[in-house]
TrEMBL record:
CDD domains with a match to the protein in the record: PRX_Atyp2cys
Transmembrane parts of this sequence: none
Entry keywords, A to Z: Antioxidant, Disulfide bond, Oxidoreductase, Peroxidase, Redox-active center
UniProt cross-references to NCBIfam families, sorted A to Z: PRK00522.1
One MF term in the entry's GO annotations: peroxidase activity
Domain Thioredoxin: 23-173
Species assigned in the record: Paenibacillus cineris
InterPro entries in UniProt: Redoxin (IPR013740), Thioredoxin-like_sf (IPR036249), Thioredoxin_domain (IPR013766), TPX (IPR002065), Tpx_Peroxidase_subfamily (IPR050455)
Protein name as catalogued: Thiol peroxidase
Length: 173
């Protein structure tokens, strides 16, 4: 049975249970399988040799903070160079992700879906047991797949610390 953590996250003040381990700086980044679209999958190995900023959001559709978080990291990604990849992971269906991304002009972030088996959510400790969405968080992983920055946002409706995440990436390139 997967590890469960309670009392570390809330949604509008209501406690949530996160499934999976709490990653820490220095941990080896866990592998995962997510969907690029309905037919193609992606894993950590697909981004080998690059610094990875992984932005995790509950849902891109109809949530202002998720929208703002993805837009902010899309702008930052344009300035980080070719040795950095910025990924946004949610459990939205790939159709919805593509529609949203196209409508919003997101060009620099790769948007991935964990809808099939919640592999990412369970491996990174961000799967919310009660609602099967992913908890807002940010991970920076170096080119050797070692975790260099972790932020589990304690309240689902709050923004992550964009400046600290970007500074962690810049320190690696």
């Amino acid at each position: 049975m997967a590890q469960e953590r309670t009392g570390v996250a809330t949604a509008q003040g209501n406690p949530l249970t996160l499934v999976g381990p709490e990653l820490k700086v220095g941990d080896k980044a866990p592998d995962f399988k997510v969907s690029k679209n309905l037919l193609e999958q992606a894993s950590l190995a697909d981004y080998a040799g690059k610094v990875k900023l992984i932005s995790v959001v509950p849902s891109l559709d109809h949530t202002g903070v998720c929208d703002a978080q993805t837009r902010r990291f899309d702008k930052e990604a344009a300035k980080l160079g070719n040795n950095v990849v910025v990924l946004t992971v949610s459990v939205d269906l790939p159709f919805a992700q593509s529609r949203w991304s196209d409508a919003e002009g997101i060009d620099n972030v790769i948007i991935l879906s964990d809808y099939k088996d919640r592999s990412f959510g369970q491996s990174y400790g961000v799967l919310i047991k009660e609602i099967q969405l992913l908890m807002r968080s940010v991970f920076v992983i170096d080119a050797d797949n070692t975790v260099q920055y972790v932020e589990y946002v304690g309240e689902m409706t709050e923004h992550p610390n964009y400046e600290n995440a970007v500074a962690a990436v810049k320190a690696l390139v």
